[in-house]
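hey team, just a heads up i'm posting the complex here instead of the shared drive bc the drive is being weird again. everything in one block, sequence lines first with there labels, then the predicted structure for the whole assembly after. its three chains so it's a bit long, scroll down
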Amino acid sequence: MDKISIPIGPQHPLLKEPLSMKIDISGEKVLGGSLRLGYVHRGIERLAQQRTYVQDLYLIERICGICSHIHTTTFCRAVEALLGIEIPPRAQYIRGLMCELERIHSHLLWLGIIAKHIGLDTIFMHTWHDREMSLDIMEEISGGRVLHAVNQIGGVRIDLDQEHYEMIRRILKKLHSQVEGLLDVFETEPAAMARTKGVAPLSTELIKSYGVVGPIARASGVNFDIRRDDPYPPYDQIDFKVITHSGGDAWARTFVRVEETRESVNLCESILDNMPDGEVSVRVPRRVPEGEVIVRSEAPRGELFYYLRSDGSDKPARLKVRTPTLSALSLLPIQLSAINVADIPVVLAGVDLCVACADR
Amino acid sequence: MDRIKKRLTILNAVIEAITNPPETVDYPFGELKLPDVFRGAIVINPEKCSGCGLCVRDCPADALVLNKESREEYTLLHYPARCAYCGQCEDSCRRGAISLSNNLVSAINKKGDLVVVLKDCQT
Amino acid sequence: MIRSLFYLFVFPGFIFQIICGLTFEWIDRKLLARFQRRVGPPWYQPLADLIKLFSKEDLLPERANDAVAALLPLISLSAVLTAGLYIPVAGFSPYSFEGDLIVVIFLMSVPTLAYYLAGIVSVGIYSILGGGRSLLQFFSYEVPLLITLSGPAILGGSWSVAEIMHAQVELGPFIIYQPLGFILAVVGLIGKLKRDPLDIPKATSEVVGGSLTEFSGVKLGIWHLVMNVQAVVGIFLLVDLYFGWTKLANPLTSVSIFIIESLIIAFTLSVTSAIFARLRIDQLAGLGWKVLVPLALLQLGFVILMGV
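-- predicted structure starts here --
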């Protein structure tokens, strides 16, 4: 059969956010594809230079909806490093709690999406229902389900009391049992296993040469996690496991993410157990002294990298954000060769697209 | 045996789903519960407001505008359509005059409602 | 004359089958929604969707053949409605004759071929892909279905659906003798109706709408009717072939038994839709020829031995 080229996007049921791909297929085999980004580019880095640090916090929060808290946390860490202050330990623990809750919500969202793409609509609905539990916790704590606005430069804006602890523990216990069931379903559903095992394997050398980070890298055996290898509080004071798998195919990525969700639920409980007392924020001056700083965090999708340079005024001189989805997207054309048309959704979902992050 | 039990998880989930009431709320006929810290419409306590303009300076969306003639005569305007409902104005105000309530912000019918006058003491 | 017009258009013909089709769509959507912890649509939703579709603009790409694209859904609808005339509904079948099982199976496969042609004729990348897949799927499930459906015919000693139904009065429901055949027939029905897990031609994630991507308006509304009536006719066929039906003294009880038997099969279809994932086309071909056909032949062999 001769080659035809199907367009995926900018509008397609597969994509949550606009992205443009042209995929060449012949019969049911995919020959290759090309990618084009930029549909969600809003010029965040340039806008950040025109606003003060306090105003930038809310701009940075809106880079991405799924991983909004980790963006503000990294930004606050960068500004606090330039200011040379240490925030109180209770604020660090509250930040860590919200980060882990966000990781749970992001991975459950991803699990629903891949279930929907392989036809398991019921699991999609059930997974998103479990995700609602973590969103409920975040709403009770901070007032927002997706955009929490918990951070401020110098600490956090909210505090937790005994009622909050009880509510969080109660919901976490329910979430624990639900997540246990999810891996069981995926492991034993024959069609799900057949659709994801052996699909688009990525070798460790390919991962390392393209600089891919996050669960995709950990699913190919690269044992790297910023929370353990370049730790920031509270992760340097709590024990947790880093999940890796050596398969490298779509099933390995599913496994890594579901296990990470389980580990995050345990981490949330550890953070609650070890939460220190004290105040939650310190006062900071408005002008940030000159300097430049690099800060890294572990977003749900991988390593988040911030570069901030200040020139002494109350507006940043240069802010550079490198999000993990960008490096994962660079592997997409390679993954698309030598698979079937029916595997395109699985491959695309395995990348865990967050195009708003990638485009900024 | 263990594998069969795991296989039945989804059947259990399906049976449990059909024997319990649905989880979605039939809004507006059903009730919607909002937490206390929900960031809703902006309210102001006019006695406490002194027209200092700290909230205006820190607003990331330029939703607050202060028309100041003198220390005693000023008007504080709020644009609900521009507002991001972040709550920075509540944190910046040193007197606790402006805050975010628990109410939802509804759509408007008249163009004049695009601007809300929070405090007006211009003569 | 008036009588045959009544049979053709009201019961068990046109209007009755369309009402049953809309009811089946409502039951299916409501059950799926409750399985997923949602509320689900109200009872008038399928009718409202149909009226909405009929009032929309009818567009096709420039190079598509409008006349053929308009004929195809009408031919499919008439085929399934005619097939329904030969299947006894609560024992009532005015037009049955010897050999009408073969005619019913043939008429029920007309919509699949029309679906394929609709994809080709509405020139669009996703339509062509979806159409090709539907033909591939057709080859994988039709052969086991034909072999399986010969089982009740051999046991009942006739090729007429009404006769097979009556034969179960003395022998008992055929599902007891051929449970494997019933499961295979349900699988074949799922493939014919293009439901999850065999909705490969319509897989939204891969080919946006399958053959019907470019359709809209009245044509799409008639296609939806075709899908629903095909489902209802298939369910009634399975009820008659495997559960049987006897005329009891109380007519209300007899009709209720028929309704309950149909609801059992509809429930089975919805549950299967909810708990299985979608197969890939090469996995379906492997499943069809390596698993389903041998099982169907095994069941047929068993039936022949029992008949002897």
